Automatic annotation (TrEMBL):
Domain annotation Glycosyl transferase family: ranges: 221-371
Keywords (A to Z) from UniProt: Transferase
InterPro entries: Glyco_trans_1, Glyco_trans_4-like_N
GO MF term set: glycosyltransferase activity
Domain Glycosyltransferase subfamily 4-like N-terminal stretches: 16-205
Domain of life: Bacteria
Protein name, per record: Glycosyltransferase involved in cell wall bisynthesis
Gene3D superfamilies: Glycogen Phosphorylase B
PANTHER family found in the cross-reference section: GLYCOSYLTRANSFERASE
SUPFAM superfamilies: UDP-Glycosyltransferase/glycogen phosphorylase (SSF53756)
Chain coiled-coil ranges: none
Species: Olivibacter domesticus
Length: 400
């Protein structure tokens, strides 16, 4: 089977977990004997192809006003014009047509379509090729990919989202199968009546995290090292975390790793006056998890899955998470972590304090961490499940 994967970015251009998981998937399919080709974007004009770790990768110049993956936020009007074109970018459809003609794939698997737009769906179906859409975020519902506005997650589409996504629901009926990386994100789309004609699946992303020895039990009075790792952005709840941390008067420290928009990152650093809080920038996640006792994921937006929580649990680090979105599918309250609620502001600080005070609870959570996500960590499981989906749409199309 020959598979064409379409995504906004591909290695070494990696913006987040979607690109990491896609690389694992693509290379895993190739190792299974399938022919794979990747089509992704680049900021410069033109279409090139190259080989990345043995995989054939096309990179097409994005035909829009600017490259959206820099850590620089354009003005409001520029962003609106960009999104208007991205609503249905016919110029990017022409690129897909060219690559399909060259490669003649048996099936196309679309992932993050920011920059490509849903115009690619029309071209794939025009070529009569089965189509699988994988949902990593909320881009197909919201131009900003997060459905987060005015410091809260949106229950409904706002007026602007409704205008910029007015074709998406009907055109989604062209998709043969849809895969959500969590139950939450798949339900989010089906609640909006997307993909009504598609076979529906949930396949969790995986991570290759080798087994390690379980840490020693905590003892009473031992300092507690709390960590945050990820993008520094308002919707990630970092200000909430800092505010709560400043109310804790026991032996607890907080390390914040990652980066984001320069202005917001500078603001966070400037408002911090607590010597027990440190910003360390970008770090190797494997080393970071080994230096902390608890990970906090205080996201205010509805994380599709929250792979950072899965990574922490794989390193035997209990997680405190806001009970929102896909995080609730992996962080199980009082089993491998604690859930708090942003509408109850002090619940986050109380959860941190509880793990410092109750070492028996902490040790119980810690012992459950790795095994609670062991199945998710299996890359072979992920590849098997995607193969089943791809074979299904390929065979059903051939039989018609």
């Amino acid at each position: 089977m020959k598979i064409l994967y379409i995504n906004a970015l591909y290695s070494p251009l990696i913006k987040g977990g979607a690109e990491i998981s896609l690389k694992v998937l693509v290379e895993g399919m190739q190792a299974r004997g399938h022919e794979v080709v990747v089509l992704s974007l680049k900021p410069e004009e033109g279409l090139i192809n190259e080989t990345i770790d043995g995989v054939k990768v096309y990179r097409a110049g994005l035909k829009n006003a600017y490259w959206p993956f820099y850590n620089i936020k354009p003005g409001k009007i520029s962003r609106l014009l960009w999104h208007i074109r991205d609503r249905y970018n016919a110029a990017m459809r022409d690129v897909v047509k060219k690559v399909i003609e060259i490669e003649q794939p048996d099936v196309v698997s679309c992932h993050n379509l920011v920059g490509w737009s849903i115009a690619v769906w029309d071209e794939i179906k025009k070529a009569n090729i089965p189509l699988v859409q994988v949902l990593h975020d909320l881009y197909l519902l919201c131009p900003n990919s997060d459905m987060y506005k005015d410091n809260r997650s949106c229950d409904k589409q706002c007026f602007q989202c409704s205008l910029l996504r007015n074709q998406h629901r009907s055109l989604s009926n062209q998709v043969n199968a849809v895969v959500g990386i969590s139950k939450f994100i798949l339900k989010r789309f089906t609640d909006f009546h997307y993909f009504q004609e598609a076979k529906k699946h949930v396949i969790y992303n995986s991570r290759n995290i080798p087994e390690s020895s379980i840490p020693k039990d905590r003892t009473i009075g031992q300092p507690l090292r709390v960590g945050y790792i990820g993008t520094l952005a308002e919707k990630k709840g970092i200000e909430w975390l800092i505010d709560q941390f400043n109310k804790i008067e026991v032996d607890v420290s907080l390390v914040i790793a990652g980066g984001g928009q320069k202005a917001y990152e500078t603001n966070l650093r400037s408002i911090n006056r607590n010597p027990k809080i440190s910003f360390i920038g970008y770090v190797d996640p494997a080393q970071f998890y080994k230096q902390i006792d608890v990970l906090v994921v205080p996201s205010l937006w509805q994380e599709p899955l929250g792979m950072v929580a899965i990574e922490a649990l794989a390193y035997y680090v209990p997680v405190i998470a806001n009970a929102i979105g896909g995080l609730q599918e992996t962080v199980i309250h009082e089993h491998n972590g604690l859930l708090c609620h942003d509408e109850e502001q002090d619940s986050l600080g109380l959860a941190i304090l509880r793990l410092w005070q109750d070492v028996d609870l902490y040790n119980h959570l810690m012992k459950n961490t790795r095994r609670s996500v062991s199945r998710i960590l299996s890359q072979q499981r992920m590849i098997d499940e995607y193969l089943e989906v791809l074979y299904g749409v390929h065979q059903s199309t051939k039989s018609k």
